[in-house]
Amino acid sequence: MTADTTPARTWLDTLRPYAQPRPVAMLFLGFSAGLPFLLVFSTLSAWLREAGIDRTTIGLLSWVGLAYSFKLLWAPIVDRMPIPLLTRWLGRRRSWMLLSQLALIAGLAAMAQGDPAQHLAILAVLAICVAFASATQDIAIDAWRIESAPLQQQGTMAAAYQLGYRAGLLMATAGALWLAGEFDWRIAYLTMAALAGVGLITTLCIAEPEVRISADTVLREQRVLDFLEAKAHWPRPLRHLGGWFVGAVVCPLVDFFARNGTTTGVLILAFIGSFRLTDYTMGVMANPFYLDVGYTLQEIALVAKGYGVVASIIGVIAGGIGVTRLGVVRALIVGGVLVILSNLAFATLAFARDPGLLSLAAVVSGDNFAYNFAGTAFIAYLSGLTNTAYTATQYALFSSLFSLPGKLLMGASGFVVDTFGYPLFFVYTSALGIPALLIIRWLSRRMPPQSRA
Questions:
Q1: In terms of C-beta density within 10 A (0-12 exposed, 13-18 middle, 19 or more buried), how is residue 401 classed?
Q2: Which sequence ranges are marked TM in the entry (predicted)?
Q3: Which one of 163, 263, 318, 394 has the fewest CB atoms closer than 10 angstroms to its CB?
Q4: pTM for the full model?
């Protein structure tokens, strides 16, 4: 009998792929994607609370983030429509990245001049513009990430993206809160606008990915040509608009259900829509909770945000390794359970009469680890569901679904806290994670996660 001479795979071998050029570029693009998100969400809620805005209004203003959930509506444009001059110069994905990043910088700089106490409506409109530009950037970055690496490297790309994303969130929370405490909110948001340039520089340095189209996809695209031939009597602009709609909107949806089947496809979408309910409904009340318990802005920045970065990094790397060694579905189940437990841990702070910084650090570290472990596995799962012919549209569908239900529910988070108190609020957010675990368990028995066509 021949002995197995295959060398054992060490932990160093597992981490080595993160040093390759594409994961490194993904790190910086992830930072660019994560930076603006909390500047119109959690960090903005801290600014509003300090300005004396009531919690119910803060909860309602969190609906600014719905732009991320409705990006499916314009994802087909990003997927198919070229930008004059820019697309010829940079390519399909990089041109949309650059345009959205320029809009981000301008929007954050404009928000820096806002005053929530005097002109709340203007600040809200600017936040919507920033959210729209950020969501557009996400569409292009997600498409670049999936198209630039093969399926077996998507776990690594997802972990690199999550690591950069966490760094961006850290800067938008700990960095912005610290600057606001030491100086003012104007300096904080102007600094964030300058840091948005990291993504712009990365976009100019990376290469446009090459996309190969499968035979099945080519056959489905034939429907577009058939449509154009059947409508030859229509005016030319209307015929081209109809053909674009069939190719950019109808074909991606038909492709998804053709590859998965109707029943399984619907359950996959239901899982996607319920997996992050706990994170979104709890997240908008995090900073108001810290302030109401008695922590200062500097303490929140140092402990709740800064101290948790180590746990975030460990969670991202553990999530990437978990996808490689456990498989995507098992990693999703582990991550979902950890998120539920970490939310329940917040109730301990709410019950404590005088919670110290050590208690805050322990609870937040556990939450950051769980959130990033689950997030890395989730991104890898979603990436495996897409067809590279429709990357932007299909991934936008998935990412819109996983954020829309949570963002709709988080608008009522302030009302739940005011009515029932923080302890029951955290029990409520934890229970929201249970349906997704039941669905993914059923899916794991029915079929493995789908790969790209």
A1: buried
A2: 24-44, 56-74, 95-114, 120-142, 163-181, 187-207, 266-286, 306-324, 331-352, 358-383, 395-416, 422-443
A3: 263
A4: 0.70
What are the start-end ranges of the H helices in 81-119?
Answer: 86-90, 92-111
31 within 8 A of 168, measured Cβ to Cβ: yes
Cβ neighbour number for residue 418 with a 10 Å cutoff? 13
DSSP label at 40?
A: G
CA distances from 187 to 38, 51, 180 (A): 16, 16, 7
Residue type at position 29? L
How far is it, in rounded angstroms, from Cα 354 to Cα 247? Answer: 59
Written as six digits, the tokens of 124 are: 């809200």
pLDDT digits (tens, 9 = 90+) for 88-119: 899 888 999 999 999 999 999 999 998 887 88
Where do we find the tokens 């495996």? 384
- Residue ranges and CATH numbers for the domains of the chain are 20-208+219-446 (1.20.1250.20)
- Listed residue (449, 433, 299, 326) closest to 371, CA to CA: 433
Residue 8 has pLDDT above 60, yes or no: no
Residue 24 scores a pLDDT above 70: yes
Total H helices, total E strands in the chain? 27, 0
CA distance 223 to 247: 8
Structure tokens, 387: 């067809």
Tokens describing residue 276: 């992050």
Q: Which residues of 345-372 are buried (b: 16+ CB within 10 A; e: fewer)?
A: bbbebbeeeebeeeebbbbbbbbbbbbb
In the chain, the N- to C-terminal Cα span, in Å, equals: 39
Dihedral, CA atoms, 435, 440, 446, 450, nearest 10 degrees?
140
